[in-house]
Specification:
Blueprint: H1 2-9, H2 19-28, E1 47-50, H3 54-67, E2 72-75, E3 91-92, H4 99-113, H5 115-119, E4 130-134, H6 137-152, E5 158-160, H7 162-168, E6 184-188, E7 192-193, H8 196-209, E8 213-215, E9 220-226, E10 239-245, E11 248-251, E12 254-257, H9 263-269, E13 277-286, E14 296-299, E15 304-308, E16 314-317, H10 332-345, E17 354-364, E18 371-374, E19 380-384, H11 390-407, H12 421-424
Parallel strand pairs: 1-2, 1-12, 2-8, 4-14, 12-19
Antiparallel strand pairs: 3-7, 4-6, 5-6, 9-10, 10-11, 13-16, 13-17, 14-15, 15-16, 18-19
Helix pairs in contact: 3-8, 3-11, 4-11
The structure holds pyrrole-2-carboxylate.
Pyrrole-2-carboxylate (PYC) binds at residues 89, 91, 93, 305, 317, 388-389, 434-435.
Length: 438
Amino acid sequence: MTAARDLLKRGNKPARYSAATLAKHGLTGEIWPRVWREPEWKSTYDVVIIGGGVHGLATAYYLATNHGITNVAVVDKGYLGGGGSGRNTAIVRSNYLTPEGVAFYDRSLTLYNSMAADLNINVMFSERGHMTLAHTDGALRTMHWRAEVNKLQGIDSSVIGPEDVKKNAPSLDISSHPRYPILGALFHPPGGIIRHDAVVWGYARGADHHGVDMHQKTEVLDILVEGGEGPEGKGRGGKVKGVRTSRGDIHAPIVVNCTAGWGSLISNMAGVKLPLTTHPLEAAVTEPVKVFLPTVVVSGSLHVYVSQTDRGELVFGASVDPLNTYSMRGSLAFTEELAGHILELMPGIGKMRLLRQWAGLCDMTPDYSPIMGFTPVEGHFTDVGWGTYGFKAGPVSGETMAECIATQRTPKLIAPFNLERFSTGELVGEKGAAAVGH
Ligand code: PYC
């Protein structure tokens, strides 16, 4: 009995429902209690985090759990997980191009691995392997290079031949007939997919449990800064005082930008210019069919990636749309291109029907790595510029941003992603390490 009670309390984790509670709700149709509070409005916090996606929520969660900082507000103009965190294709992996990228994303994968237990929620992590196909000698050479960089960091990643590609994904045509024959692939067994919504809910529930306030439908209109060199006292040398929102001002000495799609817009409010361009990234999902695709398949040359959920749907994505826009609508051009390319790889799925398509926003930096940590405005921190890599980085970003804020020191893992690199030229080139050629 004591053990059962302990399980319900779960130390610093949110309580789990007892079998009796589950049965009661199932039988009576009683309304479920809210999983996180709708908090009272407060006008002062120690930290305000802008953006209620995986990055913002994970930062709040680790501020509370790793550093005991709980007087924290997460504000979002929409709902939690309504941006990139709920729009990505749920792929996780750490087979990047640079040693800095590999070490960083690998820590994220480690956190994803233990997340179900850490957050006490079934995030349905499926470590099914990630396979990037090579259709040309040039692509194969890049895969060998990437495999060596990965191995030097202790990452399980290697180049495999067509026969092994076929073993991993029997529906692929490895003959010499296709226009883009499969010459080999970079295979990364620890990669896989995870239920992205559950990741958001897990961090939100955990942060709430520790007293973090999450204010949804609260749009940030301005960042309040004093003493800076720029107009209105903003920019370099300034100091953060808080934020102006659609529901009123919040005073806080620390304001963190954890947005995707609005990274530069929010940063401009503090007078800090970031080298970002914003592109939509589209995705689509089919009707469910019997599971036949056991691994994540990517083709950079054909600009397509595909995985099959445990429910049987195929989830597809491609490269970012070529336009700079804040539109999150799907387009016919995407669907036509996607269909053409995926059928090159898997002609057998020609009769499957697409059910939905959508887009999310990607803030692209010049080197395709993020911008993290301190800015020239005291108290203003940034965690933006994720391009198409944001979801994969959620847990490690939360962990390292929380450490940076709490200790006022830049953690080693994110030191390479500082803003100054665009002046010093110490770039961390991750173009081409994507599921697609961007
Ligand atoms: O880099 O693995 C990736 C990816 C998948 C979807 C968008 N980016």
